[in-house]
Write a structure and sequence with these properties.
With 64 residues, the protein is mainly alpha-helical. It contains 5 helices and no strands. It starts with a helix and ends with a helix.
Length: 64
């Protein structure tokens, strides 16, 4: 299960995203990092530029 899905279910804390990013970089994971995290490219782009906006991304996801 992807990070965003786990976060939405309350299975991980937002701060754990860095662990997932490190895991993607060090374990030669396939695909793009934003997909690995469960984000769209646009969400990932916002998060990279403004890390504190992760809460906003989750809020929008919950409203869908």
């Amino acid at each position: 299960m992807k990070f965003i899905d786990k976060l939405l279910r309350g299975e991980v804390m937002a701060e754990e995203i860095n662990h997932y990013v490190e895991e993607w970089h060090t374990q030669d994971r396939p695909g793009e990092i934003w997909d690995y995290l469960g984000m769209t490219y646009e969400e990932y782009d916002v998060w990279i530029e403004f890390p504190h906006k992760l809460a906003n991304i989750i809020k929008v996801r919950n409203e869908r």
